[in-house]
Specification:
extended, 11 helices, 230 residues, mainly alpha
Length: 230
């Protein structure tokens, strides 16, 4: 049952591959707003590629937004001092960023994976070579616990309560692309998750896949070829 559910979501949902953007950029590079409208209408009528439709629609929106901000009749372009930036950020932070900030493509890392791995391995291992934390003497010690620790694994209901408290708007992990919404709406998945947690709990071994993580490098300053600038 778990395989059927997973295959359904993996075949119908997931991340969008942007590798074809270069092809579409070349194709629609010289298109005007009018040309893009015609192309978008034609793609929709002919049930064209969904990725191409998304690209054309996004490019058209960007051109329309750009023309609106440069329009002399647009009061916002002449009254930027009257814009309530705090209110706009509160409503939609990324919407504000996309509206008022230019897209920057020069901050991506220009070093390879081997250089990145070597740098961060040395940096993180140098902080604590033994990977142990010594409690400073100025931190007061806690009293011994009075209640014995419950060694029983979490129950199905406890796991369900945790899942229900999680935000459905959270991004799924890039490693499996399984949204928390699947666990919220499918009791079968929660049952299998409970069995996995119970098995890991009883064996005392964390699954190797759960030890993996994705790191996003954010450029701070300087050359993008130096990992220390991220």
């Amino acid at each position: 049952m778990a395989t059927v559910v997973y295959n359904y979501f993996s075949e119908n949902f997931g991340y969008v591959n942007n590798h074809n953007d270069v092809q579409y950029q070349r194709k629609y590079e010289s298109f005007s707003t009018k040309d893009l409208k015609k192309s978008l209408k034609k793609l929709k009528l002919e049930n064209g590629d969904i990725l191409e439709i998304k690209f054309v629609a996004k490019k058209l929106r960007n051109l329309l937004n750009k023309s609106n901000t440069t329009d002399p009749n647009n009061t916002d372009s002449h009254a930027s001092a009257n814009i309530d930036h705090d209110s706009l950020i509160g409503k939609s932070f990324w919407g504000f960023v996309k509206r008022f900030f230019k897209k920057n493509t020069s901050s991506f890392p220009s070093f390879n994976l081997a250089e990145c791995t070597s740098y961060f391995t040395k940096t993180l291992s140098a902080i604590s070579p033994t990977k142990t934390f010594n409690i400073p003497s100025w931190i007061p010690k806690f009293a011994s616990p009075q209640t014995p620790f419950n060694l029983d694994p979490p129950t199905y209901q406890e796991i369900t309560n945790v899942i229900r408290k999680m935000k459905p708007s959270g991004s799924p992990c890039p490693l499996d692309q399984i949204s928390i919404i699947c666990f919220k709406r499918c009791p079968y998945l929660r049952s299998y998750l409970t069995e996995i947690i119970h098995a890991a709990w009883s064996c005392g071994v964390v699954p190797s896949e759960w030890k993996k993580a994705c790191t996003i490098l954010i450029h701070k300053k300087g050359e993008t070829a130096n990992p220390a600038n991220f």
